[in-house]
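INFO  loader      accepted 1 record
INFO  loader      residues=295
INFO  predictor   begin
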Amino acid sequence: MQRLLKNLILTLCLLMMTEGLAHPTGNMVRSGDYVLWSYVNPVDDDQHHACIMIWKPGIQPSVLITSEYPASDFMLSAQGEDIYIIERRFIESSNGFEIRILKTQPEGLPTEIWPWMKDHWRIGEGGFFMLSEDQVVFGRYPDIYSLHKGKTPIKYFEFTEPVKRIRNLEKDRLLLLGDNSCWLTDHQGTILETWKNITKKEVSNAPLDRNQVFDADLQNDELLLAYWGNRSFITIENGAQREILKLDGNFVPHWVSFYDDMKLLFASEMFMEGQNPQPKLILYQTDEYSEIIWE
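INFO  predictor   done
INFO  writer      dumping C-alpha cells
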C-alpha cells in the first residue's frame, strides 16, 4: 500500500509538471520579520504530508503547521500581518482535490475561514490573494479569476496575454508572470511596466526540458526571478539582466522573495528515482556573501 501511495504521489507530481507547474507545489512569502514557505514534514515523508515552515533572523527554521492529510499541499498569501493559507488534499476515492482556506499570523494559530470544498480549478497553484474573507483572487493558466465563497469563479479582469502566476504587491499592484514576460499591473489589469524576453532562447540541461521562469518578485524596480530552465536566479534592473546565482548538479530554483535589501532564494535538489526533493533556502546579500538558512 505504501508503495502504491508513493507511486500515486509521484504520478501527481509528474502531472503537475506536464502542466508547467513544476514540483514542489507551494510558494514563499514574507510577513513582517518572518518568512514562510511550503514543504513536506518530514522532508523525506513518502506520503507527502504538507507543512509550512517559518523563519526570521536570529531563530532556526521551524514547522508552523503540518497537514494531517497525505498527498497534501499548502499555498500562502501574506497581506500585512495576516497570512492566508490554502490547504489542499487529494481524495483518492473521487480522484479529485479538495481545499480549505485558513487564516493566521506569524505567532498565532491558523483558524479555518473556508471549510473543505471540491476544487476543480487547482486554486492557489498559480498564486492567490484575498480581497476579503469571503472572496479570493487566483491565477489559473491562462487567466486570473475571482471566487466568492460558495459561488463559481469568474474572470477578475481581462488580460491579453496568458498568465502563469500572480503575486499581490503593496500599493494595490499585481505582478503577473507569463510564459516569457512579466508585467506590473493595477487591479483593473492596466499595465504599468513590462519585462519581455525574460528567458533565453536556448539553455542547456533544462530540468524536465522546460525553459521557464517559475517565480518572480519585485522591489524598487528590481525584478527577481527563479529561472527554472537555466537553473539560476536572476535580476532585471534598468533593462539589464544579471545572473546572481547559478545552481549546481540536480538543484533547481523554485521561489524568490525580497527581504529588505537582501534576497531569499529557494531551491531544491530533484531526483528522478522518486525521492522527495531536498530543499535549500539561501539568504543572498552580495555576490561575495550568502548564507544557507535551511537545507
